[in-house]
Amino acid sequence: MDQEIARLKELTEKSRAMVFFGGAGVSKESGIPDFRSVDGLYHQAYRYPPETILSRSFYEKNPEEFYRFYRDKMLYLDAEPNPAHKKLAQWEREGRLLAVITQNIDGLHQKAGSRNVLELHGSVHRNYCRRCGKLFDAQYLLRSSGVPRCDQCGGAVKPDVVLYEEALDQAVLQKAVGALRQADLLIVGGTSLTVYPAAGLLRYFQGSRLAVVNQTALPLDQEADLLIQGQIGQVFSQL
Fold first, then answer.
1. For binding Zn(2+), which residues are annotated in this chain's numbering (predicted)?
2. In tens digits, what is the pLDDT along the chain, a chain of 239 residues?
């Protein structure tokens, strides 16, 4: 592991155009459970499976049940950034990291100081009235009950997160593609790469070095110049 850490440090120190692509595993070390791990949301008992509850059709048909689950299992507002978030923010400040492309919706990258964060699946911190468009923070939803209502017009307030059956934001996708095409080093970590179309973005990377830091095997492991199996926060804390 020491040799692998040293190699990762060498790659990152030489790079002037890094891009990081991450998923739920990045936030798990901050206490936010992922969907597919043994103790993740997919293995907990609910009346409906999470992938059903977090769909657009379920939201439209059963909004109160949606928000009961959403408040209980999707809002971790006290979570703090871990060493992975902090190291990425440091690289951006140094002008060596072009972008963080994340599948997470928790806002921890921004909390750590990152600015160019491309949130493929939206953010729990952005919520809007479906009638008048007024914006609300996550605390507003957390303090509400039932279906949250706009304090201005009474319309329903919806999280700006991408639910199942919804399309990704095209502007965010285009920025992610642009960053990947400019990158000389791509670091992939904390993701199962099973969620599409997000995982399909990696084909746009044209750089010379690929590093994978993940606890589980990934389809692109054989293409990696460096493969480290481990928790990404622990690995990044050693850089």
1. 129, 132, 150, 153
2. 799 999 999 999 999 999 999 999 999 999 998 755 545 555 565 788 888 999 999 999 999 999 999 999 999 999 999 999 999 999 999 999 999 999 999 999 999 999 999 999 999 999 999 999 999 999 999 999 999 999 999 999 999 999 999 999 999 999 999 999 999 999 999 998 887 888 899 999 999 999 999 998 998 899 999 999 999 999 999 99
* Distance, CA of 147 to CA of 231 (rounded, Å): 37
Task: Please check if 150 is assigned to a binding site.
Answer: yes
130 belongs to an annotated ligand binding site = no
Q: Which of 43, 85, 109, 121 is catalytic?
A: 121
192 assigned to a ligand binding site:
yes
The pTM of the full predicted model, rounded to 2 decimals, is: 0.93
Query: Domain extents for the chain?
Result: 1-32+81-121+167-239
HSE, CB side, 13 Å, CA atoms: give it for residue 143. 7
232 is known to lie in a ligand binding site: yes
Instruction: Note the CATH architecture for domain 1-32+81-121+167-239.
Output: 3-Layer(aba) Sandwich (3.40)
**Catalytic residue status for 85:** no
- What is the full DSSP assignment across 74-100? T--TT----HHHHHHHHHHHTT-EEEE
* Distance of alpha carbon 166 from alpha carbon 159, whole angstroms: 13
Instruction: Give me the amino acid identity at 217.
Output: A
Cβ neighbours of 165 (radius 10 Å): 12
